[in-house]
């Protein structure tokens, strides 16, 4: 069975979203998300598709692309390699950094694939907007499964993500309609 680079990114993103919403360890979530982000960022650049890095650079023209990539991948080498600093210790990892890297991978995946993406990506997208209190600003109606997410402690936010994903799986047309309206 042939597997494309975009297929790999999709599988990594879906696995990362499921792991995140199952309350899994944020380090493998970050590692999977970053691997997918590297693929989707590269594919956007190669295919001339406007990427999340382009949007960031539009908003922050003083930032070089390589600095944006470096920030997006700042812990990736530590999680993958031991040859440069075998006794290294990471003391500044924030689990929510995995969310940001995963969002970048999802956004670029959507830019490459279009609206037809796995429901995990849409559920994560809505969860991310809710975490930043952006749903109403984007014209997305209230989603009961995400109500109160901004003030909730991290474990409750993750549980809301799990609940959102379960709801999304049984309400795919409603999710797609919400996101279509937000995109216009």
Summary keywords:
about 180 residues
Question: What does this molecule look like?
Answer:
The structure is a single chain. With 184 residues, the protein is mainly alpha-helical. It folds into two domains: 114 residues, no CATH class; 70 residues, no CATH class. 65% of the residues lie in helices and 0% in strands. The chain has nine helices and no strands. α7 crosses α9. The longest helix is centred in the first third of the chain and has 22 residues. The radius of gyration is 17 Å and the shape is globular. It starts with a helix and ends with a helix. The model has no long low-confidence stretch (mean pLDDT 89).
Task: Record the SSE blueprint.
Layout: H1 5-21, H2 26-47, H3 52-59, H4 65-72, H5 76-80, H6 96-113, H7 119-131, H8 154-169, H9 172-183
Helix pairs in contact: 1-2, 1-6, 2-6, 6-7, 7-8, 7-9
């Amino acid at each position: 069975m042939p597997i494309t680079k975009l297929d790999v990114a999709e599988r990594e993103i879906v696995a990362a979203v499921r792991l995140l919403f199952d309350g899994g360890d944020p380090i493998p979530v970050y590692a999977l998300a970053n691997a997918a982000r590297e693929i989707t960022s590269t594919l956007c650049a190669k295919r001339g598709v406007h990427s999340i890095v382009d949007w960031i650079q539009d908003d922050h023209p003083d930032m070089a692309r390589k600095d944006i990539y470096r920030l997006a991948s700042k812990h990736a080498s530590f999680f993958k390699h031991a040859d440069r600093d075998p006794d290294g210790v990471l003391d500044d990892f924030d689990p929510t950094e995995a969310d940001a890297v995963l969002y970048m991978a999802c956004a670029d995946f959507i830019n490459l694939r279009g609206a037809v993406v796995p429901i995990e990506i849409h559920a994560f997208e809505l969860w991310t907007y809710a975490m930043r209190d952006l749903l109403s600003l984007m014209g997305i109606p209230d989603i009961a499964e995400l109500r109160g997410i901004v003030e909730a402690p991290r474990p409750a936010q993750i549980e809301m993500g799990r609940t959102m994903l379960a709801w999304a799986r049984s309400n795919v047309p409603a999710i797609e309609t919400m996101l279509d309206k937000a995109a216009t």
